Automatic annotation (TrEMBL):
Organism of this sequence: Paenibacillus pinisoli
PROSITE patterns, per database record: PNP_UDP_1
Name of this chain's protein: Purine nucleoside phosphorylase DeoD-type
CDD domains: PNP_EcPNPI-like (cd09006)
Keyword Membrane in record: no
Length: 238
């Protein structure tokens, strides 16, 4: 059976093909925005639980986009199915993050070279030590070249993928900051571990939507423009 006719309890394409390269925003409405504004001949392949997914073409190359929800469990569930059931080879998360370094500013773009985490997702692999969670260098190198060609300044480094949004320990982010962590988000660790275990490529591209220590944040309207820059880098990776 071809992958276009397979389905899972969470993804039911109804015969629509899912491309080998997929963009993964957390918000399914962001997936819809990309499909409607960037993809040609976009066809919806999923709406189970409102998690919208689409396949179309960008500059003649087939590409898919789908929401993942928030947090490692949600990202890990969808990315595992996309990899193992539908044959996706390149998974690119595009999301928002909160800066915890002073040299980062609102709207800056971050490529997550590494992903520190407080999640216990990796326990399933029964590794005899601590696993270093990293992006695919193939995608990271290509993304940096695309950003340079577009004249987009980006930050490349380690991010925090946390299971906790409202942390009872209000000193936690300060300690991560002292280890050089650039920003905090909630999905990259699960995505990177799934991809590594399956031998496929993953990269997390983030836009700084707020600065946690400076109490700065963007509006919904402002995020639309900032996210667009990130999308345009990601789309070129197809």
């Amino acid at each position: 059976m071809s992958t276009s006719h397979k389905e899972t309890p969470h993804i039911k394409p109804g015969g629509v093909e899912i491309a080998e390269t997929i963009l993964l925003p957390g918000d399914p409405l962001r997936a819809q925005f990309i499909a409607e504004n960037y993809l040609e001949n976009a066809v919806q392949f999923n709406n189970v639980r409102g998690m919208l997914g689409y396949t179309g073409t960008f500059k003649g190359r087939k590409i898919s986009v789908m929401g993942t929800g928030m947090g490692t469990p949600s990202m890990s569930l969808y990315s595992w199915e996309l990899i193992h059931v539908f044959g996706v080879k390149n998974l690119i998360r595009i999301g928002s993050a909160g800066a915890i370094q002073d040299h980062l500013n609102l709207y800056d773009i971050v490529f997550a070279m590494g992903s520190a985490t407080d999640s216990n997702y990796g326990h399933q692999y029964n590794l005899p030590g601590h696993y270093s969670i990293t992006a695919s260098f193939e995608l990271l190198e290509k993304a940096k070249k695309i950003a340079d060609a577009q004249g987009q300044k980006v930050h490349v480094g380690n991010v925090l993928s946390s299971d906790i949004f409202y942390n009872a320990d209000q000193t936690a982010l300060k300690r991560w900051s002292e280890m050089g962590i650039l920003c905090a988000e909630m999905e990259s660790a699960g995505l990177y571990m799934n991809a590594a275990h399956a031998g496929v490529n993953a990269l997390c591209i983030l836009t700084i939507s707020d600065h946690i220590f400076r109490h700065e944040s963007t509006t919904t309207e402002e995020r639309q423009t900032a996210f667009t820059k990130m999308m345009e880098i990601a789309l070129e990776l197809a």
